[in-house]
Design brief:
The strands form two sheets. Strands 3, 4, 5, 6, 7 and 8 form a six-stranded mixed sheet that branches. A two-stranded parallel ribbon has the order 1-2. Helix content is 32%, strand content 31%. It is α/β, with parallel strands linked by helices and 191 residues long. The protein is flat.
């Protein structure tokens, strides 16, 4: 005996659902109006535009070694190198020397602070510590002298645990890596 509903094949239903989803998705995408910014259709038609997050009038940037007002030395070299690497990885700008650059990104480390977050309850020695870097930035257009971006008092922190053999170098490196990415994100174009 045949039961009600036995004549419906589950595979056939799944294939039909998949086809409906694909057709619906195709119709949705074709009707949204997304265009890439470089296409000629953008100039003629309205709709959404796909723009870069970064300035399109800048091709190259020079990043001289950041200055350091703090007594801890060496951090400025590591931060400069990290910023240069993050620019190459995440931004469309090419890092070049100052003579060939459209712009220059200068930074100054104004303060490096260490803070104890927790202590060993038996010995009262520092257990978890945090190092915080504070930086001032200025990004200038070398072609016309205009300031493209200026930020004062940017901070970033890194944590290290001395009991695990980590020193201040480890915490500073964590803060430097985070800071470099944050600095590159600061160079995004204004909306």
């Amino acid at each position: 005996m045949k039961r009600l509903g036995d004549d419906k094949n589950p595979r056939r239903r799944c294939g039909l659902c998949g086809a409906v989803v694909v057709v619906g998705f195709t119709l949705l995408l074709s009707g949204c109006g997304y265009n890439q910014q470089g296409s000629d259709r953008n100039k003629l038609e309205g709709g959404y535009r796909w723009n870069s997050l970064y300035r399109e009038d800048v091709q190259t940037v020079a990043v001289p070694i950041f200055t350091n007002k703090d007594f801890r030395r060496g951090v400025e070299f590591r931060l400069t190198e990290a910023v240069q690497k993050q620019l190459e990885l995440h931004a469309p700008y090419k890092v070049v020397d100052r003579e060939r650059a459209d712009t220059v990104l200068e930074g100054q480390i104004t303060e490096i602070r260490s803070l104890t977050l927790s202590r060993d309850y038996r010995t009262a020695l520092p257990r978890e510590q945090m190092i915080t870097l504070t930086v001032d930035l200025i990004w200038k257009d070398l072609r016309n002298g205009r300031i493209l971006c200026q930020r004062k008092g940017l901070t970033q922190s890194g944590v290290y645990i001395e009991n695990l053999g980590e020193g201040e170098f480890v915490g500073a490196q964590e803060a430097i890596e985070r800071f470099a990415l944050a600095i590159v994100q600061e160079l995004q174009a204004d909306w």
